[in-house]
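S2.1 Query sequence (ABC transporter ATP-binding protein)
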Amino acid sequence: MPDSTHALRALDVSKTFGGVRAIKGVSLDIAWGERISVIGTNGAGKSTLFNAIAGVFPVTSGTIELFGEDATRLPTAARAKRGLARTFQTSRLFEGLTSAENVYVALGGTEFSGHLLRSSRRTPERWLRVEELLDRVGLSGRGPMIVADLSHGEQRQLELAMALALQPKLLMLDEPAAGFSPAERQHLSALLRDLPRDITLLLIEHDMDIALAVADRVVVMHDGEKILEGSPADIRASERVREIYLGGSIDDAA
Ligand SMILES: Nc1ncnc2c1ncn2[C@@H]1O[C@H](COP(=O)(O)OP(=O)(O)OP(=O)(O)O)[C@@H](O)[C@H]1O
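Output structure tokens follow.
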């Protein structure tokens, strides 16, 4: 059971790379089960905030509490062990394996060494779980396909299945719709909305439609700072957001 009211509390977090202040005093609380989208134009600091929470690098100042525990100095693996799962902008799949085998490995198939058929006899329940996860992300029937033969969209869906295999408390998705067709975007949006409500979700997304459709609350970053947060309706109606997107890359507002 959660031992705090929040899955995540980031307090006054800053990160400087050389002379660049990528994020400046950003605070962000995410309640258990809440779904947050972080939006902002190129260079706003979204990825830096995301990576700071995931523990990819140490923050310059500020604190990060995960699941009620100070995680500011915890390495990525320790954060993952406590229940944080993330996807990446670039694919981390095993391209020569099938979809099902990828999910199997993500489920903790530590005995995996190219002998999946042999291990499958020992772990039929794990293969059932693989099928469930593939179904959940809309990849029913794709289990036997080699990853390299999946479409880009399907590969991202597979990554989502692998993240879900970890039964995360906090699922962090880094631009999951990058490179998607309009149809794939709609599909992803529906998939994310259908995720179990007990998974806390932090989504960084360029695509406004997905960001607003999936989130309970939206955080707007600009120039390294959190400048606004509110409901999707608040954000949609915000003149400030409109100005920022028009002043930045108009593609971002698409
Ligand atoms: N490793 C790094 N080294 C130096 N500067 C960095 C590094 N990572 C990010 N920055 C800088 O920090 C600022 C914020 O970048 P960040 O990638 O967090 O923005 P973003 O909102 O994710 O942008 P995008 O939407 O383009 O991915 C930018 O000015 C960027 O150039």
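The pocket of adenosine-5'-triphosphate is lined by residues 17-18, 20, 22, 40, 42-48 (CB under 6 Å). Residues 152-165 form the longest helix (14 residues).
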